[in-house]
Amino acid sequence: MKHTNQNQRIPACQLYLISPPDFEVKDFSVNLIETLATTHVSCFQLRLKGAEDEDILNTARALLPICRDFEVPFILNDRADLAAELKAEGAHLGQDDMSYKKARQWLGNDAIVGVSCYDSTHAAMVAAESGADYVAFGAFFATTTKKPRTQATPQLLSLWQQTTTVPCVAIGGITIENCPQLIEAGADFIAVISGVWNHPGGPSAAVNHFNRLCTTDKQSAPN
Q1: Best label site of 64, 110, 130, 168, fewest CB within 10 Å?
Q2: Given 19, 47, 79, 204, which residue is catalytic?
Q3: In the annotation, is 104 catalytic?
């Protein structure tokens, strides 16, 4: 972690960027470079639901070096086995994917493993106690990316912050307009897809705007 000076603006929350559901790799690579060059993306998740293994691997091999150039962790959705093959920084698991224990066996102790917990604090506690690096709650708002399994409330984030120190990610229909309430409620990360890639001003402008909303004038603790 970087040290901060007193009175320096520090993030109250960080941006967890997820790939759009469908894209052409060459054009998207250009967008990803421009977006990560803002330096305001904490991690990037490649999410290709229903894709063949070969397509996932080929896409990941094109995008992973870009993330490495910007020192942004590359997280693969669902497939810890393919993440291990790619030597990616980690994997994100849904409740219907392989178990956390099996994913950790694939990836080792140093990798990032996050778990979707929807609106369940029980599932989140199980994941946290198992060793998950973060838990994800959602969907908080309507989303066109996927049909939400559950409807989560900002109060869930506040409750989680009072319960444990394991970071929580808020996901689901998050935009520049609706994210402040999630940041205030205690989200450590906001996971965004359409709110960045479909922003009328372009992805980089969206990321910069999200970063301004995620940053507070709160004084940092003395070193």
Answers
A1: 110
A2: 47
A3: no
Using an 8 Å Cβ cutoff, are 204 and 35 in contact? yes
Look up the pTM and report it: 0.91
Catalytic (active site) residue 116: yes
Q: Are strands 41-46 and 74-77 parallel, antiparallel or unpaired?
A: parallel
When comparing pLDDT for 8 and 40, which is higher?
A: 40
Q: Which residues contact 107 (CB under 8 A, 6 or more apart)?
A: 80, 83, 84, 90, 91, 113
**Is 146 a residue of the active site?**
yes
* Residue 69: DSSP 8-state: H
For residues 86 and 60, what is the distance between their CA atoms, to the nearest angstrom?
A: 8
Domain extents for the chain? 10-215
Residues 6+ apart with CB under 8 A from 187: 13, 157, 168, 169, 170
| Architecture in CATH for domain 10-215 | Alpha-Beta Barrel (3.20)
Q: Which of 68, 87, 102, 146 is catalytic?
A: 146
In tens, the pLDDT along 160-212 reads: 999 999 999 999 999 999 999 999 999 999 999 999 999 999 999 999 999 99
